[in-house]
Design goal:
The protein is an all-alpha fold. It has a single domain, classed as Up-down Bundle (Sodium/glucose cotransporter), CATH 1.20.1730. Helices cover 77% and strands 0% of the residues. The N and C termini lie far apart (47 Å).
Length: 579
C-alpha cells in the first residue's frame, strides 16, 4: 500500500475516535442514554443505522461471493426472507416494541409473563442474547473481516482482528448508542461510496461493461445471468422455506427482535420507528446491494470458477484492480462496515448484562455513573470474547452464512409469533425454545454434518429444527399452566397485539378491542402491500443487471404502484404527520 492509503485509513480512525469522544457526555448520563439514546432518535437515523448494521464486514465479501458463486440469483439466499420480514417489522413489530417502552428485549419477559419464573428466565435470556447470540454474531462478522482484509494487507488473521477491535473498544465503550447510530451514518456512506468508485475503476481498466458481460457468458454460460431462482442449490423447496422463514423472522433475534428492536425502543415515537424501518428496507434490499452485484459479475468475468476461496473474491479484486488512494478508502470502508455492525452488537449485548443481570440480580441501587461504568466494562468483555470466537471457531464462510442467517434461529422461530399472537403461550414454552434452540442448532449444523450441502440440501437441517421447535414449544405450553389472566390483560392493554386473545379481550374495555381489530385489518393490508413492494423491487434490480427488460419494466412498475399505495395508506393513517 502507498502512503496516501495509510493517510486515509488514519484519518478515518481519528474521525471515528473523535465521534466517540463527542458523544461521551450524552451517553454517560444514565443507562437509558447509553443503551437507547434517551429515546430521541429520528426515523432517518434509525434507517441508516440499521442498514449499516446489516452491512457489516461480511457484506462486501458475502454479497460479492453469492453472485460470483451462484450467479445473479445468488442473493435470493437472503432476499427471500428479508423481503418478507422487513416490511412486516415496519408495519407491525416496530410499533409493538416501541409501545413497551423498555430498554432491552429481556425486560419483555417480565411484562409478558408473570411470577418468579419470568424473573429467573429474564436473566437466562440475557445471558443467551449477550454471551451467546451477540458474541456469535460478532465472531461471524470478524471471520468476514479476515477474508476481506487478508488479500489486501497480507497480515495474520489475529493481527487484523486485534487492530480493528482495538479501535472499536475505544470509541464504542465511550459513546454508547448515540455514538453508534450517528457514526453508522458516516460509516455507511463511506462503505457504499468507496465500493461504487471501485466498480467504475475496474470497468475502466477492463474495458467497459460490454467486455465484462461477454466474458461472463463465455466463461459461465447464459445460466449465470438467470434473474430468478430456482437455480442450483437454491431449489424450489429451499426457496419456499426461506420465504416461510421470513414470516417468522420478523421477531427473531436477528431481525425484529434484538438490536433491531433496540433501535425501535430508541425512537422518538412508534411512527418514527415504523418509518425508519421501511427506509431501512429500501436501503438494505436494494441500494446497498448494487455495487456488489457488479463486483460479483466482474469476479466471474476475470477469475476462474474454481477459485479455492470464493469468500475472498472481493479482497482479490481490490488487490488486483485498486489504485493508490482508493485502496485506503476501501480499507476504511471495510473497517467502517465492520465497526458499524460490531459496535451495535457490543452495545446491544452489554445492555443485557447490565440492565437484566447486574442491575437486576447483583446491585439494584447504584448511581447512574456506576451503571455507565459497568456498561463500558461489559462492552469490553463482549468484544474480547467475540475476537476469540472469530479467530478460533469461524471457518467455511458459506456454511456460517447459512447458519447465522437461517439455521441458528430455526428452532426458536415459532416463539416470534406465539409470544405476541397466542394468549396460551407461557414462560415455560419460551424458556424451552431458548435453552434448547441454540445448542441444538449448532449440533445439527456442524457436529452432525448438515452444513455439508453436498450430502444434505440446506432445507434438511432447517426443516428438522423448525418442526422440532413447533412441537416442543407448543407441547411445553400445553403441559404447563397458563399465565394469569391479569398479567395477560396488562400486557394486552399496553402492547395491543393482534392474534388469538379472546379469553383476555373478553375482560377488557370494548373500545380497546374494536380499536385493535381495526388496526389489525389495516396492518394485514399494509403488510401485503409492503411485501409486494419489496419483492418486486429486488426482482427489478436483478432483471436490470440481467438485461431482462420486460421483467425489469413490469416489476419496476409494480414496485412503483405498490410503493405509492403503501405511502398513501400510511399517510391516511397519520404516520407521516406524526413525524
Amino acid at each position: 500500500m502507498h502512503s496516501i492509503d495509510w493517510l486515509i485509513i488514519t484519518t478515518y480512525c481519528l474521525l471515528t475516535l473523535g465521534m466517540g469522544v463527542y458523544f461521551m457526555r450524552r451517553a454517560g448520563q444514565n443507562i437509558e442514554s447509553y443503551f437507547v439514546a434517551g429515546r430521541k432518535l429520528p426515523w432517518w437515523i434509525l434507517g441508516f443505522s440499521a442498514t449499516a448494521t446489516y452491512s457489516g464486514a461480511g457484506a462486501a465479501p458475502a454479497l460479492t461471493m453469492l453472485v460470483f458463486q451462484y450467479g445473479l440469483s445468488g442473493n435470493w439466499w437472503w432476499w427471500a426472507s428479508f423481503a418478507v420480514w422487513m416490511p412486516l417489522v415496519a408495519v407491525i413489530w416496530s410499533k409493538l416494541w416501541r409501545r413497551l417502552r423498555i430498554i432491552t428485549t429481556a425486560e419483555f419477559m417480565e411484562i409478558r409473563f408473570g411470577g418468579k419464573e419470568a424473573r429467573v428466565f429474564r436473566g437466562i435470556y440475557a445471558v443467551y442474547m449477550s454471551l451467546g447470540w451477540a458474541v456469535l454474531l460478532n465472531g461471524y462478522v470478524m471471520g468476514w473481516l479476515i477474508r476481506a482484509m487478508a488479500p489486501v494487507f497480507q497480515w495474520s488473521d489475529l493481527k487484523i482482528l486485534l487492530c480493528a477491535s482495538g479501535l472499536i473498544l475505544i470509541y464504542c465503550t465511550l459513546s454508547g448508542l448515540f455514538g453508534v447510530v450517528y457514526s453508522d451514518v458516516v460509516q455507511f456512506v463511506i462503505f457504499l461510496g468507496a465500493n461504487v468508485i471501485l466498480v467504475f475503476v475496474i470497468l475502466h481498466k477492463i474495458g467497459g461493461l460490454e467486455v465484462v458481460y461477454d466474458r461472463v457468458i463465455a466463461q459461465r454460460g447464459i445460466e449465470f445471468m438467470q434473474v430468478l431462482p430456482p437455480s442450483g442449490e437454491l431449489g424450489v423447496i429451499t426457496l419456499l422455506l426461506l420465504f416461510l422463514q421470513g414470516f417468522f423472522f420478523a421477531s427473531s433475534p436477528a431481525a425484529g427482535e434484538g438490536y433491531t428492536a433496540q433501535r425501535f425502543m430508541a425512537a422518538k415515537n412508534e411512527f418514527h420507528a415504523q418509518t425508519g424501518q421501511m427506509f431501512n428496507s429500501v436501503l438494505t434490499l436494494v441500494v446497498r446491494v448494487i455495487p456488489f452485484v457488479f463486483l460479483g459479475i466482474v469476479g466471474a468475468a476475470v477469475l476462474p470458477e474454481t477459485v479455492t476461496n470464493p469468500d475472498r473474491v472481493w479482497g482479490i479484486l481490490v488487490s488486483r484492480f485498486s489504485v493508490p488512494g482508493l485502496t485506503g478508502l476501501l480499507i476504511a470502508a471495510e473497517l467502517a462496515a465492520f465497526m458499524s455492525t460490531i459496535d451495535t452488537h457490543v452495545n446491544w449485548g452489554s445492555s443485557f448484562l447490565v440492565n437484566d443481570l447486574y442491575r437486576k440480580f447483583v446491585r439494584r441501587e447504584a448511581s447512574d455513573k456506576h451503571y455507565v461504568f459497568i456498561s463500558r466494562a461489559a462492552a469490553a468483555a463482549i468484544l474480547i470474547l467475540s475476537v476469540c470466537v472469530g479467530y478460533f471457531l469461524v471457518d467455511q464462510m458459506m456454511s456460517w452464512f447459512l447458519f447465522i442467517n437461517s439455521v441458528v434461529v430455526a428452532f426458536i422461530l415459532p416463539v416470534s409469533w406465539l409470544r405476541f399472537f397466542w394468549w396460551r403461550h407461557n414462560v415455560y414454552g419460551e424458556a424451552a425454545a431458548y435453552i434448547i434452540g441454540l445448542p441444538m442448532a449448532y449440533a445439527v449444523w456442524f457436529p452432525l454434518g448438515f452444513s455439508q450441502t453436498d450430502k444434505h440440501p440446506f432445507w434438511h437441517g432447517f426443516v428438522l429444527l423448525f418442526v422440532l421447535g413447533w412441537a416442543i414449544i407448543i407441547l411445553v405450553d400445553l403441559l404447563t399452566r397458563p399465565e394469569k389472566l391479569e398479567k395477560l390483560k396488562d400486557f394486552y392493554t399496553r402492547c395491543r397485539p393482534p392474534g388469538f386473545w379472546r379469553p383476555v379481550t373478553d375482560k377488557i374495555d370494548l373500545s380497546i378491542k374494536q380499536e385493535q381489530r381495526t388496526e389489525a385489518r389495516q396492518d394485514i393490508m399494509d403488510s401485503i402491500i409492503g411485501i409486494i413492494f419489496c419483492v418486486s423491487s429486488v426482482i427489478a434490480l436483478t432483471a436490470l443487471f440481467g438485461r431482462q427488460m420486460f421483467i425489469f419494466l413490469s416489476t419496476a412498475a409494480l414496485a412503483l404502484l405498490s410503493g405509492g399505495i403503501f405511502l398513501y395508506c400510511w399517510n391516511r393513517r397519520g404516520v407521516f404527520r406524526s413525524l
